[in-house]
Amino acid sequence: MKELVEVIAKSLVDDPDAVVVTEKENEKEIVVELSVAPSDMGKVIGKQGRIAKAIRSVVKAAASKDDKKVVLEIQ
Prior knowledge:
The protein is α+β, with helices and mostly antiparallel strands. Helices cover 40% and strands 25% of the residues. A three-stranded mixed sheet has the order 1-2-3, with helices on one face.
């Protein structure tokens, strides 16, 4: 999941070097934390959160085969 979120985020932002993705996993869920430069925050979230919602949908679809819940936190 980490790599997937990283590839998507780096393609959206102006400063791909500032993209940091961390992944924490426990029994039932995977928490993926995405951190971008403050100037790129709007590009990752999108108008009314549409891009963030789309990223969450893609990650959720990719994780469905593992039977784990994925939570994407954008910081």
